[in-house]
Amino acid sequence: MENVLARLCGTSPEDPLPVWVHGSIGHCFNQLTLNVIPHVILGVVSACFLGTPRSGSGVPCRPGWGCRIAASFTLAGLFLADTIPAAISQQELGPVYLEVLANGTATLTWLTHGLALLMLFRSFHSSTKGPAALALLTLLPLPSLIITVVWYCQSRTAWSPAHPSASSRFAILCLQLASLLVYAIGYLLPTTGRQDFLSINRSWQEDQLVSEPEISVPDQQGVAEDGESWLSRFFYLWMNPLMKRGYQWKLNQPEDVCVLPRQLQAARVCDRFYSCWQSKAALHQREEEDTVSLTSPIIAGGNGSSDGPGSLQRAQEPVQLFSVLHAAFGLRFYSLGLLKLAGNLLGFSGPLLLNLLVNFMESRQEPLTHGVLYALGLFAGSFLGALLRNQFSYQLNKVMLMVRAAVISAIYRKALHVGSTSLARFTMGEIVNFMSTDTGRLVNFCLSFHEVWSLPVQFAIALYLLYQQVGIAFLGVLALALLLVPINKVISDRIMVNNKDMLKHKDTRVKLMTEFLCGIRVIKFYTWEKHFSTRINACRAKELQKLQAIKYLDAACVYLWAALPVVVSIAIFITYVLLGHQLTATKVFTTLALVGMLILPLNNFPWVLNGTLEAKVSLDRIQHFLELVDQDLEAYYTLDSPSGTATAMEMQCAAFSWAPVEKESTRQPLSAGTLPLYIENLSVRKGMLLGVVGKVGSGKSSLLAAITGELIKQGGRVYVYDLEQGFGLATQEPWIQFTTVRENILFGREYDARLYKEVVEACALSEDLNILPAGDQTEVGENGVTLSGGQKARIALARAIYQEKELYLLDDPLAAVDADVANHLMQKCILGVLKHKTRILCTHRTEFLEKADALLLIDNGRIVKTGTPADILPLVEAFPKVKDADKRRKNKAPDEQDLEEAVETEREESTQNNNLIHKEEEKKEGAVAFQVYKAYWQAVGSCLVLSILFSLLLMQASRNISDWWLSHWISSISHTANTSVMVCSASPPSPELLLFFTLGLVSPIQAVDTTPVPSNGSLNVNFYLIVYGSIAGANSLFTLLRAFLFAYGTIRAATVIHYRLLQRVLKATITFFDTTPTGRILNRFSSDLYTVDDHLPFMLNIFLADMYGLLGMLVIITYGLPWIGLVLLPLAALYFSIQRYYRHTSRELKRFCSVTLSPIYTHFSETLSGLSSIRAMRATQRFELENQLRLERNQRCLFASNTAMQWLDIRLQMIGVAVVTAIAGIALIQHQKQLGNPGLVGLALSYALSLTNLLSGLISSFTVTETMMVSVERTEEYTTDIPTEPQDKLVQVAADWPSQGLVEFQQVVLSYQVGLPNALDGVSFTVYPGEKVGIVGRTGSGKSTLFLALFRMLELKSGRILLDGVDSQLVGLEELRSRLAIIPQDPFLFSGSVRENLDPQGIRTDAELQEVLEQCHLWDAVTQMGGLDSKLGERGRNLSVGQRQLVCLARALLTQAKVLCIDEATASVDQKTDQLLQQTIRQRFADKTVLTIAHRLNTILDSDRVLVMQEGRVAELDSPTRLSKKDGSLFQHLLHSGQQ
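^ thats the sequence. predicted structure below, dont judge the formating
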């Protein structure tokens, strides 16, 4: 190094770089340190601005910028010119090489700077002066120029004719100074007026706005990272505005986060992924064609009508998801490995250079420049290493986001296109799990993959260094390590098996929970909370059992690795001694250091493997889902029209089934749900109205499903005119989206005021919309919970009509509405707006089918008969008619007309809980409250927490004591070997010993005792080894204790938290469920609980270990080296401020991540439940786009949150780098002053190298723990904050109460929510024991609310309800509800057997169950399905809707209650079955009090009295005959309108 400098400067090697020569600064020193280095700095910083994005708008030239750019290029030219005279007049001023180096650097620098200014000028910086730092750096070379000018003046060579080259150089120098002056003036010139600035700024922002048009200019968030300079990218300067806003509490909604960089935007990622998918699929197909070319004509089938499933299931090899991901993101992902490798290798540079530096300090022979080089090397190595590792994490995070976006949208797209028959194999819970848990695991594999190859590399290097220390004895380590691999494999296999089982139980539990939430009303009516709670808790117990196994196995794993170093090192020592070598302290020390290094890769390996295996399981699950057969519409439909153009739809010899054909042979007798449908010949003309009738379960809905292509076609032809356009479909169970009423009706089409008004009128929705709080902008709850059944049906119908399709499939839209509205729908809608369309209408309300063009009678999946209404209707069932209804209507008095108007404008009942509905998910502000930590502490249990903390303390203390013992041993040996004052400069501690012993290096302490040490070295070694071994043994014992205590504690917490959460949710009021989307509650029970079960303990463990590790380290450092405190104190302050700044923002971003995640899942489950409607109306693409938008919003928050972590990391690393450099610098100064103590310096540096890692680990583990605590906060919020039903019981009632069945309402007032109009307004009436009362009234008049009040689903504002004279308010809820029976409006069944659905408590005999099923005409269907123990499928999907209602009736028949409430129980049942049922109810409940809400008035004509409700009040109450004769009564009006 000295020689190089000497040759460059032309000086002597002894003093290559003299600072002072002949009374002025040395020329060489001036050129190298004051000219070259400042220019290099300026050049590098300027280069960072070369990537600044242009602002797009033309920028007028500004004099200031012009001066600076011109000056820069002039300077570049001048420096270049200066090399010519320098080269000619050799050695006159200085050596040629030195001049060329200096001028060359300067030329390049000013060129770069000029270009950078040009870029800045064209960007939005043009309105300012550009970055101030850049301008200041241009002043750095100034001192050098001034010193040179002074030198010229002193040597008087400035203008001497004798030295022409010198004179020309001086002239150039003056010009350089002048140019710099011009540059400075240019910088000081004012840039723009305020007005000017605004216009530019606006144009820039508009330019930016192209990316997201819907955001107004002031709030527009910049696009992250794109177009930023390198400097900004490495240090995340572009994140600063966001971090600042977070710190100032200005991050209030996910939109405040910066937009994703272009390459991460969901649309781009998905396009790339799908194009890779398509190219793979095409490749597969080509291979297929080569092999199948012989058989292909047979498989393809002639005209697309090939019989047999061959046409659907080709033997095509499915595309592998993994290979597509590999093709789409592989190159980018694998190339990150280079970054990782470089980062890891630089990690080794630190200890090596540290070793050299300490040697340098010990020898005192080496020249100073070596020391400087080592110090610089330490700085460069740690700086670059930090940058590379940080960039690796950041880029990897970006790839992980891409993979996540691709997989989630692939699953969503698949769900949209897969045949519903194959989809039925999975429950909804499982499919949502693919999107959440499985995708998460797959994405985490990206992390594991790079560890898989990098850990063995680290292991190999450490092994090699160990071999250099102890020679062949290192094989002992290898043998032990290899032995541990199979043990570990066994443990990790057990973990995997348990994990799989745990996920199974988790799926079951979430599925149960979903059913519980969907049927919460029914469950409360029937008081089945206990039953469900038992079932859920049973699942949870199984899940926790597996979790416990996993945690204990984990603990064993952790213990093995903790105990390993001790066992390994002792094994090495024994082998070494047996081989006949002499053990020295140095060997012991170094070996231990290296063993410590070996343990890290070995330790991490099982986790990494586990992650990889988990990812494999999840990949297989997702792959299995992606391999399901798609709907193949081309194979399903025949494209050429069979008979003329007038046909809208035609089927010939078409056979359909719900289940794939192969499975049928193995099935039990087919259930009604899998009923095969066979259509011999059916042709529908364009524009006709075809009615479809048949009894419950005869296959009406299946026929519509067959038309839309939702069934599996076994053979035959299906033709539909204009397939592309799709169908207008109104399903039997209306599907309503969680959005406004208007959005539900528009369903993605443009708003057309005229059409919209017409549709709303036709569907009788105008009144309802007037009542709703925000009109058609009112949010409806999830699945439309805030609407009545009739409103849901009409909104679904309105949606179908607004789509303006040609073919309409209407599945009983009249079932849920009362006679008056049904009549309106028939006249104004089906025969009105739709009169020119083709309509297929399935219904049980045969009275409306007289106007149909033709009718089909279906039974058992076959068309029994087709014909005109006159032919078919008599076969179905006689239906009541009043011949002179029309006449009477005409003779109505004027006041009756007004009354009719009044009835029409009635209020909608349960919409009272309307605007409140869409309560945004709460987002707690600020730090996680102390209460949350306290709650978790209590869940674990105080004693347990304290014992865990104590065992941690013991473990850390024993570890630190063992380090101290080693140092004591070394110092005592060096003391005996060399009793000089400078113990540490003694020979034994070899240089290598400092190399890797980052954790256990302690300052060698001088032995104070002067007792003579026995000369027998080996005995001495044995004594020290035994003490060391026993301390280490104690350490491993404490480790074991801690691991198992911790596992036990966290399991206990998981148990307690779930139990408390479930108990609270079971007792919540019904309003809570109406206003909270199911997805949000489920989120608590799935992902939040999973965090509490699994992720939180894992992170908490790491955090506690880090914290104790840090404390131990600080204690030991300050003990050995007190002055390091001077460095640590300011450092601590800096750390504290940075992490506080970071945690504010990070917390908000993490919360945004959770809040934006729920909508993705809610939207997905909503899509799954409305799949048939979405596909029939051809809206799949729009839904895919919506999913992408929601995903994008979530990815934005995730990206910002990940980047914030990297922002923190790079800052912490830089502080670490500064510390290392500072200590090295101080060491060099001390060395020069002969003060240094190499041992202490080595110690300080070895700790400085690892301290920063530990500190950044601590902050990140604390932050992650804190964000995981948010899950505890969210569960805690439900455990403490949600409103619960009153649990008190003020009066004890008799066992047979109510024995008579007397029901009295006294001035009952009730509203759905505070501040809403009353739903019942002073209702008073009495129902006598055994009386049958029918309740009628317009939709929303408060009929169903009466039942809610009776069952105390809502608490009364005032008034009382008496049962047998006892105030129901005083009776315990469970007692009250169990003594009443109800048949609710929505037939709710849960998955399980028929027996469980009828009698969850299991108290009835089979005979009783069979009897009620026979009375409900269900026994045949049940025996066909396989008896009482046959499964009903999710939400009872193996039964038709009518059959489900019959099951609910059977439940009611089983209860021995004196009071029975029936809410439209037979709305989906055909007339014949209905009459049989009415008969059954009359017989079975002859002596009971029966309240019936009816829409078909004929069902209540024989009741004792009729109660007519209007606007929440009792309008009329009398016998039906009297009311029907009484002119002008509401009942009479309702009766007539029902018989039009």
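Residues 1180-1232 form the longest helix (53 residues).
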